[in-house]
Design goal:
Blueprint lengths: L5 H18 L2 E5 L5 H10 L3 E3 L7 H5 L4 E5 L5 H17 L3 E4 L7 H14 L3 E5 H7 L22 H14 L3 E5 L3 E4 L4 E4 L12 H13 L4 H22 L3 H14 L2 H7 L2 E3 L2
Parallel strand pairs: 1-2, 1-3, 3-4, 4-5, 5-6
Antiparallel strand pairs: 6-7, 7-8, 8-9
Helix pairs in contact: 2-8, 4-5, 8-9, 9-10
The structure holds adenosine-5'-triphosphate and 2-(4-methyl-thiazol-5-yl)-ethanol.
2-(4-methyl-thiazol-5-yl)-ethanol binds next to helix 8.
């Protein structure tokens, strides 16, 4: 494994943010009602445009207008599964990159099978989940509890190198970038790995921060640099969470503060506040 030098990293982040500002990319999100509103607003907050159409009869038509397709397996339903497959098939035809957020796969055979088949058939550029969900996809023992990660699966500074190796092997086998969220987020394509130690435990107490990290990654994937997109999204979400937690009086103001912070965070903030664990 290797880590890029810092100049390349900074330039890639800058070019992604410039691309988003200049193109206001349309992000087609097929996701569940629990966090759909937050995901749509998150996409808007960072200067992109969301479309949440999921009906199987129209998903392919809508995705053809999009820059990126993000599918999220939370609260899965038959019509959304079909919508995801039809949209992904069209996305493949058109060269539109795909992100899959494997919500709940650690606790559901249905979702694990669906995710496996979807990844084999449509080759998403980014495979995302919390650490338990990614462990389940990798065939490793996993201690997820519903849609939450199990404490035993959390990646920390001490376990980052081992996790990067395990997730990197899966990423390389699927020619994808893996983004595993948690206290340390892991981003790897099997060649490069970065651990992002930014964030706060408060983020895990607001439902959908993982889903929001998924669509934020999708926004940045519009610049066709999926590894950098995932690192940048994890850093931005972590730093926005840190800023929101400093001001919050409780979970209500944290929720609002998170949106304030993510819509205002700059590359200069990210570069100053980033806490990356590098493999070299
Ligand atoms: N203990 C922690 N310390 C710092 N940051 C954390 C911690 N736990 C989670 N995060 C951050 O919270 C965000 C969401 O990650 P998490 O792993 O909780 O997602 P998730 O389980 O998929 O969430 P959800 O299912 O509610 O969408 C990420 O940005 C992650 O870095
Ligand atoms: C709480 C919950 N249940 C299914 S999805 C979801 C949101 C977090 O992924």
């Amino acid at each position: 494994m290797k880590m890029e030098n810092e100049n390349n990293l900074y330039e890639s982040f800058a070019s992604i943010l410039r691309h988003v500002e200049e193109t206001k990319p349309l992000i087609h999100c097929i996701t569940h009602p629990i966090t759909m509103n937050d995901c749509a607003n998150l996409v808007l907050a960072v200067g992109a445009s969301p479309n949440m159409a999921s009906h199987p009869e129209e998903a392919a038509e809508f995705v053809s207008l999009a820059s990126v397709l993000a599918v999220n397996l939370g609260n899965i339903a038959d019509d959304r599964m079909e919508g995801m497959q039809r949209a992904a098939a069209r996305a493949n035809e058109l060269g539109i990159p795909i992100l899959i957020d494997a919500v709940g796969v650690s606790c559901s055979t249905l979702r694990r099978r669906f995710a496996h088949d979807f990844i084999e058939a449509y080759h998403p550029a980014v495979i995302k989940g919390n650490s338990s969900e990614i462990r389940a996809l990798c065939g490793l023992d996993s201690h997820g509890s519903g849609v939450d990660a199990g404490a035993a699966d959390a990646v920390t500074a001490d376990t980052f190198a081992a996790a990067a190796g395990e997730f990197g092997a899966y990423a390389a086998a699927h020619r994808a970038v893996v983004l595993a969220s948690g206290p340390v987020d892991v981003v790897t394509d099997g060649v490069r790995a970065c651990g992002i130690a930014n964030g706060t435990p408060v983020l895990a107490k607001l439902t959908g921060t993982g889903c929001m990290l998924g669509v934020l990654t999708a926004v940045y994937m519009s610049a066709h640099k999926p590894w950098h997109a995932a690192v940048l999204a994890a850093a931005a979400m972590g730093i926005a969470g840190e800023q929101a937690a400093q001001e919050a009086k409780g979970m209500g103001s944290f929720h609002v503060g998170l949106f304030d912070a993510i819509s205002n965070v700059t590359l200069a903030d990210i570069w100053k506040e980033k806490r990356f664990l590098l493999i070299q």
